[in-house]
């Protein structure tokens, strides 16, 4: 039996098929750097038939030291702001993009629970997006148990990346960079 969006539970209620189609049409690729989601974002994108044309790979940087050594986050940022921070998410997104040779880098770092971490409440997530002429970070406040927070973070990342790719597609300056 072949996997399809109707049989892959990670694809429920998320526009992953649209993301893969949009990236394919734009001739662009994506890479991920994931902490709290530990690969769920990459797995969700990979669940779409044809994803191999756009998904370059991903870094699971669950441990703080790997955020530096694999993800490219500076020691200074990790020391001063910590692993759950907007600047960490931004550097992880740039690191995923650079290290995997992708057009877009997407990063997720945050607290899935059950306990708060470094003063950040459960459900605090930072999403970093880095692409052609574009970098942005969002702070998300998600609710629920660990699974709900982790899958919610991955789904939000897909929706926001789709928005960015579509937005940059309408901007010829951004597409040419």
TrEMBL record:
Gene3D superfamilies: CinA-like. Residues 18-164 form the CinA C-terminal domain. InterPro entries: CinA-like_C, CinA_C. This is Nicotinamide-nucleotide amidase. It comes from Nocardia tenerifensis.
């Amino acid at each position: 039996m072949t996997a399809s969006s109707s049989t892959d539970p990670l694809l429920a209620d998320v526009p992953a098929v649209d993301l893969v189609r949009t990236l394919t049409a734009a001739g662009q690729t994506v890479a991920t750097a994931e902490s709290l989601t530990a690969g769920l974002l990459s797995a969700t994108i990979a669940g779409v038939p044809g994803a191999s044309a756009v998904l370059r790979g991903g870094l699971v940087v669950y441990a703080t030291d790997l955020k530096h050594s694999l993800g490219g986050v500076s020691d200074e940022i990790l020391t001063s702001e910590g692993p759950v921070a907007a600047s960490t998410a931004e550097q992880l997104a740039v690191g995923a993009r650079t290290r995997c040779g992708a057009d877009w880098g997407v990063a997720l770092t945050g607290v899935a629970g059950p306990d708060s971490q470094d003063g950040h409440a459960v459900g605090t997530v930072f999403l970093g997006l880095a692409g052609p002429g574009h970098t942005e970070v969002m702070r998300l406040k998600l609710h629920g148990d660990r699974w709900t927070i982790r899958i919610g973070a991955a789904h939000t990342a897909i929706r926001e990346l789709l928005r960015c790719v579509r937005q940059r597609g309408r901007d010829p300056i951004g597409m040419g960079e």
